[in-house]
Amino acid sequence: MKITKEQxxxxxxxxxxxxxxxxxxxxxxxxxxxxLGSVIQAYYSNAWKDTRKDTRASQCKQAYYFSIEFxxxxxxxxxxxxxxxxxxVRDSLKEMNIDLEELCNVEKDMALGNGGLGRLASCxxxxxxxxxxxxxxxxxxxxxGLFKQKFVDGNQVELPDEWLREGNVWEVRKASKAVxxxxxxxxxxxENERGQLKPVYxxxxxxxxxxxxxGMLGYHNNMVNxxxxxxAEIPEFEENRYQSIEERRDFRDLTSVLYPDDSNYExxxxxxxxEYFFVSAGIQSIILSQKKTGVAMLDLANYVAIHINDTHPxxxxxxxxxxxxxxxxxxxxxxxxxxxxxMSYTNHTIMAEALEKWPVSMLQEVIPRLYQIIEEIDRRFxxxxxxxxxxxxxxxxxxxxDGQVHMAHLAIIGSHSTNGVAKLHSDLLKGxxxxxxxxxxxERFNNKTNGIAQRRWLQLANEPLANLxxxxxxxxxxxxxxDLHLLMNYKDDSKxxxxxxxxxxxxxxxxxxxxxxxxxxxxxxxxxFDVQIKRLHAYKRQLLNLxxxxxxxxxxxxxxxxxxxxxxxxxxxxAAPSYTYAKHIIKxxxxxxxxxxxDEAIQGKLKIVxxxxxxxxxxxxxxxxxxxxxxxxLASKEASGTSNMKLxxxxxxxxxxxxxxxxxxxxxxxxxxxxxxGLTEEEVYRYYETQNYSALKxxxxxxxxxxxxxxFIDGTIPNIKVEGQEIFxxxxxxxxxxxxxxxxxxxxxxQKSIETLYRDKPRWQKVSLIxxxxxxxxxxxxxxxxxxxxxxxxxxxxxxxxxxxx
Length: 806
Ligand code: 26Q
Fold this sequence. Notes:
With 806 residues, this protein is an alpha/beta fold. Among the domains are: 295-448, no CATH class; 454-672 and 679-773 and 783-788, Glycogen Phosphorylase B (Rossmann fold, 3-Layer(aba) Sandwich), CATH 3.40.50.2000.
């Protein structure tokens, strides 16, 4: 987009005056940010309108990404970058004595997600628009984002995230597009005058679903897609229907909070209500808009692709059937055909406890008509499959069994595509977790390895490196991430290697300043910055990291002159509020941190920093400053991981198990450029079969491990009487479910190899360069293009980066 500095300044000053009756010089940062946001929004409003007009006029097929979470973080800089206005605006503001960074900090993170799954949805929205693909998001506009985390005496405390308090400049409320969503009551079927069985509803409750749209801008291509988030309101005419105050509050509060559990399924009624809410609103609105352009319902699959992001929107299948059969008068068979062709599903987890199942009674209570439809889908599935395969297989794969509705079964049976998010994960789905379904529908299964938006994680978060890349390999990598490969031409160029190392140092200094400011801990940028940032979960094994830290600490205690390269261990992690074990790990890390950081005997060689409130913005600060990327989940447990890709892109060296996408990172950088350790997925499964793992034996035979574990219960680590005991017991009494002790020695060895490598500066720099050079492979641009071609069958309507350069 072409806007001159003069034009921008004029527009900006005018907006400040209009909005706040104030001059720029007299305005607060809040006011300046709000004005800037609204100017930027006005700049892209034409492109937004045109994108909508063009998709409608061409009647091209569009994708709708249904996700109960989106985690975009801040949007100001990303919008400026994608519009090609970052430099113009930064420079203009500077000329007015305003620091763009300061205004960026005013914006609240939009944190409508827990972690990987929500962030992936947002990287996809960026990439879909940047690839010129017609694709929209559909989700929930939570009034409160993911809780804010504070540490009080080392314990996690959760505070509400009031991200909307100052308003949200990017959203547009579309009251005219509101739809009703019905709940509860009773339903029975009655023959109508044409002899069709139609539902009759009694005592239903009605909610108004009001959409708030946010533009999703493509990179330099004038494409603006829509993220549509729904908010619940009680319609005026219904006010008196809600009997009790509690009931009213319940329903009004429906979209107020995001459930903060990421991989631990809890069957809360309100969560089910939320799921139906955004599914029903989204499907209704898609069908309404298609009908408006004259599309026949029988042809719907030629015009829309609906993607079910994990099972949370799996009700899409039943809601689509309800509308097609009850309201559009299609026969069941025809409606089913359309539905299956329209829907596709991604699985994000193999952890059994995260698989969604709802009691039949809850569905009957909340969505009685949908439950009838699910029963009919199930009945027909059983009838059809019983003719083809043995009855036990049918019993295992049916949707309703043991009084529960299995959402993954509904999603697989009701869609034409099921994919995992990394090669290993997709293989495990086919071979183990969803093997029964693979037997029934082998052609539906496929892999789509996750990806990341390099615009956010390199261009925006790591400007020093991005600028150096421009000077070194040209700017084509900004559009074509695989062009980062050009960096390989410099792998032996000591000047470039040193320049890259200098950018890393700059980023480390910036992070060190933040650490000092927020925690009071003084860390040296000359130390190795070793980073583990992700949700706190036993399978991700932050505990393994902690045990290794304790090992180094005891070595230094025994011999303060021990030759240990100075390291700063940096953690960022939120625990689900109900996940006590995870919270106890946080407490222990914080207590170990206090103990070690205060111990002068070790001369500052080890520092531990657990940064509060890990979120997208903090990730943008930490990742560019990382030397070492910790990806140490138990093999087979992490579906993909995406922080592994972000850290690699910014030149960190990975220490990893052969899990999720780590395997693909290893394959692409080669064994010499990554530190792999630990059990393989086969070895883990063999232990499950033979049941012959004994953590106690390892403990009894290894004095180093004894000393480390005893520290948790003998008072060595202060203030963790309860927590330390629980962790000790999880390892020894309950036999170490995630094989932490089994992988300990090989982790120690891998950490040693990392240290040795770091001491060899030229070699380290080369490994770092090789990681950045190969990270283009994991651009989400390529991931969404594969979804577009293989699953959604949609085509670009804009060229990639067709716009002029900034
Ligand atoms: C389900 C039911 C009830 C309440 C909550 C939930 C729920 C919510 C969020 C279940 C799971 C999640 C989030 C899962 C998630 O983030 N998974 C991660 O997805 C990433 C993107 O594919 C992968 O890279 C990670 O490996 C995977 O852990």
